[in-house]
């Protein structure tokens, strides 16, 4: 992988520049890259999806540890550089593709067993939509190891009643275990970001015991409830959900729903656990549609 000075020469010599719009910050420390690959827990039998290849800072050490890397890269200039320089190993398949538009089901179809392991140094600007994409594709993903802005990473692993606890925390914890595995300072990138980063590991498989213990529920309704609850997080749950129109009935009837779920309607959304949100979901949507029912892989 190129060092900081080598990367500057590559960029200058090929008339390339890190895109601010895409939030490109390239890793330039090989020890950090190798540590991220170790944290991912991949093995020699794995086919791994890398989201955002860049100049290969993660791709090269990853390719040494797995059977194949399928790398997606949106930047046409970087893809052209790889085609010219041929620095990637034979077991790397580079695809010129927008990771947010990628068909994860199609990618899973190329892998024996049909399940994805994902590795990425994510541009900060697209971390939230990508995380929601992972949640939507939770039933075909084993794990994702992601470099994120520290603020976002801490939000994913936050506990109830903390200011970081929010929509992504609840939805990810309803189907996976998320852990912060390492911190990375701005000096490890070119150009240097203005914030610190963290690497998080999101494990959908093996299915966490907490997830297994949850009763069946409508996942689409859970999403709607959680998003409505945190939309104005200073409001009480009753006010937030009644204003959203989700239940379609008056406040008195909605209060009865809270009572059946064993939840105080006057508390704030950050005080609810995943189990509380599931209980509320089951009362709001007692008949579960099999097409959207939460199921474990």
Short note summarizing the structure:
The chain has helices at 4-13, 30-40, 59-63, 76-85, 104-108, 127-136, 150-156, 167-173, 209-212, 219-231, 237-244, 251-261, 274-284, and strands at 26-27, 47-51, 68-73, 92-96, 116-121, 141-149, 177-184, 189-190, 197-203. It is an alpha/beta fold. The chain folds into two domains: 4-210, Rossmann fold (3-Layer(aba) Sandwich); 219-284, Helicase, Ruva Protein, domain 3 (Orthogonal Bundle).
Overall average pLDDT:
91
Determine Rg (CA atoms, Å).
21 Å
CATH superfamily of the largest domain: Vaccinia Virus protein VP39
The rounded distance between the terminal residues' Cα atoms is 36 Å
3D shape: elongated
Helical content class: 25-40%
Spans of 5+ residues with little confidence (pLDDT < 50)? 288-292
Strand content: 15-25%
Instruction: Give helix and strand order, one letter per element, not per position.
Output: HEHEHEHEHEHEHHEEEHHHHH
Major beta sheet summary: 7 strands, mixed
The domain tally reads 2
Highest-level CATH class of the largest domain: Alpha Beta
Structural class: alpha/beta
The total count of strands amounts to 9
CATH architecture of the largest domain: 3-Layer(aba) Sandwich
In DSSP terms (H or I, runs of 4 or more residues), the helix count works out at 13
Strand order of the biggest β-sheet: 4-3-2-5-6-9-7
């Amino acid at each position: 992988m190129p060092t900081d000075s080598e990367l500057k020469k590559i960029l200058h010599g090929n008339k390339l520049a890190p895109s601010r719009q895409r939030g490109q910050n390239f890793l330039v420390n090989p020890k950090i890259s190798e540590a991220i690959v170790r944290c991912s827990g991949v093995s020699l039998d794995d086919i791994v999806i890398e989201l955002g290849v860049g100049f290969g800072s993660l791709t090269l050490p990853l390719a040494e540890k797995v059977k194949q890397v399928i790398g997606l890269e949106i930047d046409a200039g970087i893809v052209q550089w790889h085609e010219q320089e041929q620095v990637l190993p034979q077991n790397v398949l580079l695809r010129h593709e927008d990771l947010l538009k990628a068909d994860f089901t199609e990618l899973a179809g190329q892998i024996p067993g049909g399940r994805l392991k994902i590795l990425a140094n994510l541009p900060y600007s697209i971390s939230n939509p990508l995380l929601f994409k992972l949640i939507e594709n939770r039933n075909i993903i084993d794990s994702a190891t992601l470099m994120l802005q520290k603020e976002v990473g801490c939000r994913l692993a936050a506990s109830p009643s903390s200011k970081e606890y929010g929509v992504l925390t609840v939805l990810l914890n309803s189907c996976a275990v998320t852990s912060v595995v390492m911190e990375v300072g701005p000096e490890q990138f070119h150009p240097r970001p203005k914030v610190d980063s963290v690497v998080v590991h999101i494990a959908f498989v093996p299915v966490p015991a907490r997830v297994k213990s949850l009763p069946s529920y409508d996942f689409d309704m859970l999403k709607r409830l959680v998003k409505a609850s945190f939309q104005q997080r200073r409001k009480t749950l009753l006010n937030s959900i009644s204003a959203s129109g989700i239940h379609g009935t008056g406040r008195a009837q909605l209060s009865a729903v809270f009572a059946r779920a064993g939840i105080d309607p006057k508390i704030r959304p950050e005080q609810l656990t995943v189990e509380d949100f599931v209980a509320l979901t089951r009362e709001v949507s007692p008949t579960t549609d099999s097409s959207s029912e939460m199921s474990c892989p």
